[in-house]
């Protein structure tokens, strides 16, 4: 078999299970039956089913090694890692009043998840998926738990270890997974939430570009999540300008995301000229996602996938790796992630009963409002980048 996709996956990532409650929040007597947490295992089981059905004959699955302590300490504080390991060994539980919690398997699952992202980055550098043709499949880290909210010193937003940040640091390291280390890494984060942990990891760095398009949800916890994801968080010191936030209004859909790529993501990444493009691919910008407020559909994700492919080919000699982030409506996550692969692989899949459509397409986009917000982001980032 000649593979087109390498999925970095291990069943140990299913063992992580956050506590039940009132949706993602702590339990309350007014909810009779505590609800399964939105980071439920069905999310990734559905993605696996989609890949098996749509691309099973061109997909290979590789079980990644757990990320080593050395790899983890490239991003995370040793004290935090010690705390996380001990908290899980003790049985886990919810972190105070936050929406983030774990069980006794979470630390191991998170290390496997981080290992998947690191392996995907090494794969992308050693064997770029477009330059070498079908002999070099696209690396896709099907990570659970997700990573982009995990900050160097704390868990946050269902995330414990920052998979994308760990992958970027591994790619830059001389003793990392690739034969030749990268000098510059770009991370494009299209998850509907701001990748605050990734931003925090590289806020003062000029060798890692972070571009995030997200709902304008702001800080959701004064202590655990101080970052706002605003256009004014542009990085500090040597990193000034290398954090590029694009907050979007509720209802942003396919056309808005396409405009974000046209006007900001593509010119900024092209100017940065990375050796590796990592995509924090959270497909929770869909119309039914209970944690998002946007309305991107399968065709919109198809376009984003195609844009990521072309961007990696044009700027990073094809070195592209996808790292799974959020996506919480379990069925829509399959349709949306199918769209991403259709775009990256430049093929469409006819699904019986659905064709090439997305059954969740039922809302209109407030295009004038979306354009106003993108105009504001362009005006802010013009100080650093050739955007217009
Ligand atoms: Zn998200």
From TrEMBL:
SUPFAM superfamilies: Arginase/deacetylase. One of its GO terms (molecular function) is histone deacetylase activity. The keyword Zinc applies. The keyword Metal-binding applies. Its cofactor is Zn(2+). Keywords: Hydrolase, Metal-binding, Zinc. GO terms for biological process: epigenetic regulation of gene expression. Residues 37-340 form the Histone deacetylase domain. Belongs to the histone deacetylase family. This is Acetoin utilization deacetylase AcuC. The lineage of its organism: Archaea, Methanobacteriati, Methanobacteriota, Stenosarchaea group, Halobacteria.
């Amino acid at each position: 078999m000649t593979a087109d996709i390498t999925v970095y996956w291990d069943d140990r990532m299913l063992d992580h299970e956050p506590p039940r409650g009132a949706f993602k929040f702590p339990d309350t007597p007014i909810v009779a039956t505590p609800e399964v947490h939105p980071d439920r295992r069905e999310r990734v089981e559905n993605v696996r089913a989609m890949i098996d059905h749509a691309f099973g004959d061109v997909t290979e699955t590789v079980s990644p090694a757990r990320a080593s302590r050395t790899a983890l300490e490239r991003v995370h504080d040793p004290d935090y890692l010690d705390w996380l390991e001990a908290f899980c060994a003790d049985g886990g539980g919810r972190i105070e009043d936050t929406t983030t919690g774990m069980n006794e398997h979470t630390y191991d699952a998170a290390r496997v998840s981080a290992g998947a992202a690191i392996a995907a980055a090494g794969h992308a550098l050693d064997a770029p998926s477009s330059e070498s043709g079908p002999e070099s499949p696209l690396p896709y880290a099907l990570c659970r738990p997700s990573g982009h909210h995990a900050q160097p010193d704390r868990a946050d937003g269902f995330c414990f270890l920052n998979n994308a940040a760990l992958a970027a640091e591994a790619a830059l390291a001389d003793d990392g997974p690739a034969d030749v280390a990268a000098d510059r890494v770009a991370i494009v984060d299209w998850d509907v939430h701001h990748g605050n942990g990734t931003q925090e990891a590289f806020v003062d760095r000029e060798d890692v570009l972070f571009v995030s398009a997200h709902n304008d949800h702001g800080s959701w916890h004064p202590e655990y999540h101080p970052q706002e994801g605003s256009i004014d968080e542009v990085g500090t010191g040597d990193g000034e300008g290398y954090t590029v936030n694009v907050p979007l209004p509720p209802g942003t859909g396919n056309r808005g995301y396409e405009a974000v790529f046209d006007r900001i993501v593509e010119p900024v990444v092209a100017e940065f000229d990375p050796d590796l493009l990592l995509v924090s691919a959270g497909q929770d910008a869909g119309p039914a996602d209970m944690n998002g407020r946007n309305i991107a559909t399968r065709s919109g994700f198809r376009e984003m996938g195609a844009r990521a492919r072309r961007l990696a080919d044009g700027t990073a000699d094809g070195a592209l790796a996808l790292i799974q982030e959020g996506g919480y409506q379990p069925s829509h996550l399959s349709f949306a992630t199918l769209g991403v692969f259709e775009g990256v692989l430049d093929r469409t899949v006819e699904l019986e009963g659905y064709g090439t459509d997305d059954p969740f397409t039922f809302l209109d986009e407030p295009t004038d409002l979306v354009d106003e917000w993108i105009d504001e982001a362009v005006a802010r980032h013009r100080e650093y980048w050739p955007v217009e």
